[in-house]
Amino acid sequence: MNQSMFIVWRESVEALLVIGILQAWISQQPEDSRLGRLLWAGVVLGLLCSAGLAGLMLWAGEAMSGPGGEWFQAGMTLLASLLMVQMVFWMHRHGPGLRHTLLREADQRAARQGGLGLLLLALLAVSREGSETVVFLYGAGAHLDGPALALFAIGGGLGLVLAGLTVMLLRSTRRLISWSSFFALSEALLLLLAASLLVAAVERIGGQLLAMDMPNWVYTLVGEAWWDSSVLLSDSHGLGAVLAGFAGYRATPSTITLLVLAGYWLLVGRGLYRARRAPL
């Protein structure tokens, strides 16, 4: 539930921000009412494209059974993790100039294609955010069913409501938090969630490897835990469950889990360090 709420919240805020920037641009144009209709037509088409992708992914997951389905879900979870990291670094580089970039592209498309250019721009922007949301949600919730899946869906709905409230708050006042602070905080949480999804994907892959005829060192690497901290902090309930869902914490980590987390944070830390030193 917490994962789905955060994913929908973060992605919806970004989508609403893009729509708000385009609306502000439309308000300064002579044909604002017609352009406004085309903008929302593009938004609706973008949502339909995202819904189509969601249906396709659900169909593919249902069509594959047994090991094939497990490998597919592991692959989608791994893809969601990689896309989250890519999105964080993209926003880190382009976020400060996002408004200027959108307005320039809106001017260029309007000059070349008229209102249809604005519709296409809205379609691409919304379908991009929506597609990312679909992949992230599928990666985070692929292993859920029954009541857990229902809570996951409720979390997504709450995330949408929170996104609307967040945008209203950020537009009305900057005393509590600014846009830059919001994106910095959400990027940190996205990196933690990406680590969690990466661990989940590796564990799914490890589960499939354990069912195969593999050398003994593979079973040791994947199946044997280095320690058991369940007594101090269990990963099945309370704070430990939150850390497991948002940061990949495991009370009984295997060698591969520790190696993956260490490698992930080393690469992310190196990337962030190089991004800070890069010329603006």
Features:
single chain, 280 residues, mainly alpha, 81% helix, elongated
What does this structure look like?
The protein has 280 residues and is mainly α. The protein is built from ten helices and no strands. Helix 3 crosses helix 5 (115-141) and helix 7 (179-210) packs across helix 9 (238-247). The longest helix is centred in the N-terminal third of the chain and has 32 residues, at 32-63. It is elongated.
Produce a short descriptive summary.
It is built from ten helices and no strands. The chain is mostly helical and 280 residues long.
Indicate the overall shape.
elongated
> Beta-strand level of the residues, as a percent range?
under 5%
Rg, Cα atoms, Å: 21 Å
Mean pLDDT: 80
The SS-based structural class is mainly alpha
Low-confidence stretches: none
Please work out how many helical segments DSSP would assign. Answer: 10
The helix/strand order is: HHHHHHHHHH
Distance between the termini: 38 Å
Please give the share of residues in helix: over 70%
The major pleated sheet works out as: none
Number of strands: 0
